[in-house]
Specification:
- Helices cover about 40% and strands about 15% of the residues.
- It is built from 6 helices and 4 strands; from the N terminus they run βαβααααββα.
- A 4-stranded mixed β-sheet has the order 2-1-3-4, sandwiched between helices.
- This is Arsenate reductase.
- Belongs to the ArsC family.
Amino acid sequence: MTTTLYGLKNCDTCRKATKWLDRFGVPHAFVDYRQDKPSPETLVEWADKAGGFDALVNKSSTTWRQLPDNRKAPGSQAEWKLLLREHPQLIRRPVVVMADGGFSQGFSDNGFKKLFA
């Protein structure tokens, strides 16, 4: 098994993360979650590992800011799953799922060095 990087193919941060993995020879697969939306079960798993749905979402994104106020405060897990299935670009990216079950969000050179040491 390899590391799986979930993100958007046109996202600069996802491209940087992919280039980093290529440069350091880390075998990986890339999944564009706009085209291949994560299942509701996967979203719950990611939220659990990230520390909740609030931590999973990039609240500084343009998409988040453009949401109506009533959509910005999902009151249940079902509402969060619906929101993230409708707008997968709200998920802070990239999401890195390692073969051993490790999980990470976002990209930084130092963060990836620690993650893949």
